[in-house]
Please model this.
Amino acid sequence: MSKGDVSANIIVTNAVRSIDMTSQLVRVNTKITCKNEGESPVATVNVAQPDSVADKLAFISAVIVVEDDDDTKLDVKKIDSQDGHALFSVELDTPLGAGASKPLMLSLCMLMLSDHFLQQLHNQRSSWLFSPNLITSYHPML
Model:
């Protein structure tokens, strides 16, 4: 991933991931809290997935998590693939100001997964969150 595509000011201060493998579709939900540690507003947050996962994506979506309110759906676009990882850009509804935080829910749905791939996913659950930004807290759940 090229450094120009990633805002060094975004820090993932918390990440909680769950995986649902109860059907032939595998759904991975990751709630992240992004914080802008810079001085300028940031309009996008980038997330990465290994090409082996990105190639099997049926869809990827992101919403802003709002308690007791409707979540705001965000645009997600694949912007690059480099060094074995696909980089996706999440367009925020409003720029994230200096020092501000925003909770996001990322949802990935994958199809046509082999038993071998599912076993790999299960075995790597403790390290299966990829971000071009610093992650300060991560809690995988299966």
User: Anything to note?
Assistant: The helical segments are 51-54, 115-123.
